[in-house]
Amino acid sequence: MPTSLKQLGQIASIRSGHTLRGAITPNPEGDVRLLQIKDLDQDWQFDHKALPTVVWEQRIAPPFLEQGEIVVAARGNRNLAVVYRGEVPVVATSQFLIVSLRRQEREIVPEYLCWLLNHPMIQQWFHRSGTNIQLITKSALLDVAIPVPPLETQLQLIELQRVWQKEDELINKLQKNRHQLELGILQKLLKD
């Protein structure tokens, strides 16, 4: 049976991150943690102290991320998507689009959707505009065609992605160790 295709807008809703007025001034006494583009490089979901806290002074309640929502960096050169699985309430700023699978949508795993959104083919589709400043619009995200294989296949792809990511980490460590070994050999040769 062929894999069905659905537009993201058929299976999920998308909202923009929260717009804050003025500059973000971190406050250690703050009651809300903020996720900004620069935080994506850090392990912010497991080290919540990496995120700045602010005192929430808005009239509305903080629009905290919910478990399983996908945060997509809408601006910048890397439009990285991340599934929120953190334990600490976090508000994503307006630099992000937040994808929420519809409650009745049980045939798609958030991590699978995240893997698709990070895939080079999808990223290339986003960047077809050819501008230097990359921007993913809500309408472009809603139009993304999502292949929907059986749940078992999605889970296998997620596990493969984890293995590939671990492999990349190990290769990077090996390259770093090799570089340090080469440097040590050269330094020893220069001393002799």
Automatic annotation (TrEMBL):
Gene Ontology molecular function: DNA binding
Entry superkingdom: Bacteria
Pfam family, one: Methylase_S
Keywords noted in UniProt: DNA-binding, Restriction system
Record keyword DNA-binding present: yes
Gene Ontology biological process: DNA restriction-modification system
Domain Type I restriction modification DNA specificity: 6-173
Family to which the UniProt record says this protein belongs: Belongs to the type-I restriction system S methylase family.
PANTHER family associated with the record: TYPE I RESTRICTION ENZYME MJAVIII SPECIFICITY SUBUNIT (PTHR30408:SF12), TYPE-1 RESTRICTION ENZYME ECOKI SPECIFICITY PROTEIN (PTHR30408)
Protein name: Type I restriction modification DNA specificity domain-containing protein
